[in-house]
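To whoever picks this up:

The nightly regression suite flagged Small ribosomal subunit protein bS20 as changed. Nothing in the input moved, so I suspect the structure step. Input below, exactly as stored in the fixture:
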Amino acid sequence: MANTASAQKRIRQTEKRMARNKARKSRVRTFVRKVEEAVAAGDKAAAQEAFRAAQPELQRAATKGTLHANTVARKVSRLSARVKSLGAAQG
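Regenerated output under the current build:
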């Protein structure tokens, strides 16, 4: 248990930050899952729409420091490629 006031404050701050980060990561995963489900179903329009919704959510996670910027860039790139390949397979 923390003995000093500053240590107790750091514990409170860490708990709040962890809760925020957990919620943000969960939200990102939900948006990414929606894109992946649309791609798996072969629905290009739904996949594009889901991707448009997921992109800002991923970028926000990077801006807020929840996810690393390169991680977000990689995820966006891979999702984009999967959505694009869906159109090539049909067309």
